[in-house]
Amino acid sequence: MQKKHLVIAGIALLPLVNPPLVYATTAVEQLLVEYRSQGATEFTVEAGKELFFKEFVDAKSTQVRQCTTCHTDDLRQPGKHAKTGKRIDPLAPSVNPKSLMEIKNINKWLKRNCEWTIGRECTAQEKGDVLTFMQSQ
Ligand code: HEC
Fold first, then answer.
1. Considering only CA atoms, which of 21, 57, 59, 17 is closest in space to residue 40?
2. Scanning 8, 9, 12, 20, which has its CA 20 to 30 A from the CA of 98?
3. Which residue out of 65, 109, 137 has the highest number of ligand 1 atoms within 8 Å of its CB and is therefore the one to mutate?
């Protein structure tokens, strides 16, 4: 009887010891799982950083655009919207606890900002890399 209880307790504890990624709680972790299911592989801070700083030329205006155009080179600093001049709260979760908390918000801005900056939506791989970079800031 006692032995059986121990076995049951052991099985019940297993998910706590080694939680599968699908149980991850933060918005970014959930999104990374989703991107992997869409075929993305490993996400790295380096690849995300490269994309964040990469220069793209807008086909229509020939303007050079980067993520840093609005968010600046330092994610811990407030950004400034290139078109409206409005202040943007820092993206770095280390200084802005509200950053990267809501899946809906992240999806909305990634779509809009990739389209404006790169001229197309970001791929699952790009989104995962850039979020991994942002989260590290
Ligand atoms: C034209 C200006 C502009 C550019 C360029 C831009 N962003 Fe943004 N971004 C914003 C604004 C404005 C917000 C909303 C900030 C807020 O809600 O406080 C935002 C928010 C975000 C968010 C959501 C943050 C959160 O807490 O949910 C992500 C992710 C993001 N941007 C990523 C990027 C990436 C990646 C690029 C480059 C591909 C980029 N942005 C380029 C203006 C820009």
1. 21
2. 20
3. 109
Going from the Cα of 93 to the center of ligand 1, the distance in angstroms, rounded, reads 13
Which of 30, 47, 23 is CA-nearest to residue 126? Answer: 47
39: left (phi over 0), alpha (psi -120 to 50) or beta: left
Per-residue pLDDT of the chain (137 residues; tens, 9 = 90+): 555 555 555 555 555 555 444 343 589 999 999 999 999 999 999 999 999 999 999 999 999 999 999 999 999 999 999 999 999 999 999 999 899 999 999 999 999 999 999 999 999 999 999 999 999 99
Q: Return the amino acid letter for 124.
A: A
Distance in Å, CA 106 to ligand 1 centroid:
8
Cα of 37 from ligand 1 centre, angstroms = 24
Rounded CA-CA distance 44/42 in Å is: 7
